[in-house]
## 1
Amino acid sequence: MEAKSNDYFIDYSDQLPSYEHFYENVMRKNIACMFGPQLTEQWTCRKEWTIDGQSIDFDHLVNKYATLPVPVYDCSEKHFNSNPRTEMLFSQYADYWQQQQQQQVIDANRILYLKDWHLAQDSNCGDFYKIPTYFESDYLNEYCTAKSIADFKFTYMGPKGSTTPLHVDVFGSFSWSANVIGTKRWLMIPDHCVETLKQLIGVNNLPHDLYTLPNYEQIIAKVNGFEIIQKAGQVLFVPSGYMHQVENIEHTISINHNWFNACNLDRVYSNLLNALKDVQNEMSDLKNTDEWNETCDRILTIHFGMNRSYFMDQIRHITTNRLLRQSNHFRYKHDIECLAKIYTKILSNHQFQNKNHEDWKNCESLKSLNKLL
Ligand SMILES: O=C(O)CCC(=O)C(=O)O
Ligand SMILES: [Fe+2]
């Protein structure tokens, strides 16, 4: 079932596309694509974290990162739609992993996966890789970095057999994933087929692993599911709203970012509004209280990961950046139009009519967007 190019996936392993081609034919169309290892060839982590690209250089990694605390998930146990999470020192995780490697057979009752590690941020040093130009227009991480809040730039390390359960990425963001070493098997369900999948198996019955369903072949075919094998050095672009599950079929280290830009900002905006409606329905008892808006935004942050103020502040930040400094760069050429459209939508949406938002509306950069439309 492994995909070569299909309606939802383009394989650029042999030849890199131009930025414009990627923008128009992949990001705007919201389909997946794979880039070849030439994109990561110069990354220092591909050299320094491995021994000739063949095995993981644990000595080097432990030397550098031993005392950093890392988030670790036990893939052999379920915790709602994820796995239980603990924290340990990187040196402890490296010990576990090396032991597993020496045994040759991985203990299936305890498969530990180091995930969502903000390594660049935690170590104050992100020079072990370079973000490919294709992914440089990134409102989310540009904002997080400027505000010194947790970013969405992660390092993943997992033994053969470690898995990420079926999910859709946070906010409806894009993600990209680059293998430093090892191989991943992805199963992807296109965004517009996710509703059908939920109807077929029941919204509350989505398994961690679609392959555990007795009739998985028919189901996957019905929802246009496809597999992608991602090898060392390759970089996968994951579109907005696609459901996916991932298995490391070898010992694997990867760099993964979540982000959004002019192509999917609208999606993030409507996901925010849908999540807000859910919260408002849940909290309807408090509707006539003074704290209504603040309470809903607080709960929205817990459920969705951001709220109205956070979103509006991001729009203000990116708009100011683009207008003051960067609007001429080719990567940003679609941004002003996109930001202007979102600004107009927010202004006319009653969900954003809050007196706390007056200063936002009066921000000079945002107001000048109107003139550019
Ligand atoms: O590599 C993994 O285990 C999961 C990655 C993922 O879900 C993503 O990059 O969106
Ligand atoms: Fe994901």
## 2
Amino acid sequence: MSLNSGNFPAAIANKSNSAWANGGSCNYTEFWTQYLQAGSKFTLYSQTRLGSNYRDPQLSNGAGFDGAGINFANDIASYRFTGCA
Ligand SMILES: [Ca+2]
């Protein structure tokens, strides 16, 4: 596991129906359904670096540009930042 990835703490893992990304030095944030960046994922852009597609208020109806049709509600456990400066 690199510095650009990690697991969400147990207090919030698998308990969210929304997501918002604001990577300070990375263009993309991947949200994964399993710990250690496994399972299914969707990707959001950085709010500050790209300025669009950076949040999804309802994960139950699919999420990101690569997670269409997948129910991610209460099913996000880890993350990875990509496209980093
Ligand atoms: Ca959605």
## 3
Amino acid sequence: MQTILKYTAPSRLLHWLMALLIAAMFTTVWVAEDAPEWLDHTLVNMHKSFGIVLLALIVIRIVARVASPRVEPIKASPAIQKGSHAVHGILYLLLIAMPLSGWAFVSAFGRKIDFFTLTELPAILDTNKELGKAIKEFHEIGANLVLVLVIAHVAAAAYHHFLLKDKLMDRMLP
Ligand code: HEM
Ligand code: HEM
């Protein structure tokens, strides 16, 4: 199978755009916690809207990944390669599961998603408070998992860049 040395431009652009959006997802809810009510409301609305944008981007990213040639496997032991694939795979799954679960529990609580105050998105579940609570719990656990995996991912990238000084980082840079 044909392989390339660097991620394609659309994959690189989407990776960094999504990294920024993930930072925004955490910042909005963390700052909202201690914010006055009007700000809390605005931040949670931004959280929901950015989350829907992320859902669209991850779908495009997965299609782009499947459609493009694979990047060369990294020069590392099979165990490290498997570990890095597992982290990337779980991150892709979570990036689908997080926005969907957010949308689902907001719907199950009978609340609205006012997409950037432009339009109201339809509910994807009927109102069901019990189910809403369970999905919200999943959303919170999933968010912690995203955080742990992103920290491990960034630490691995930093290890390659600063200690191993190999060209791994260049594969994802402009
Ligand atoms: C400062 C933050 C980040 C840095 C420095 C970074 C760095 C990198 C690098 C260098 C690669 C390429 C690895 C390789 O060539 O095998 C990569 C791939 C990847 N990154 Fe990041 N990343 C960051 C943030 C994120 C975030 C926030 C996410 C998602 C939550 C993410 C998800 C991924 C995924 C899924 C891949 C695999 C791409 C693929 O093979 O399809 N990254 N990252
Ligand atoms: C990748 C996407 C997402 C990530 C990483 C994420 C992350 C988070 C985090 C970290 C929290 C705080 C959890 C806690 O308090 O322990 C949270 C809460 C919440 N999320 Fe998300 N989320 C995402 C997508 C969405 C989407 C698409 C929606 C709805 C459309 C949504 C709706 C909510 C709501 C309503 C809360 C509760 C906020 C509050 O009132 O405190 N999330 N999310």
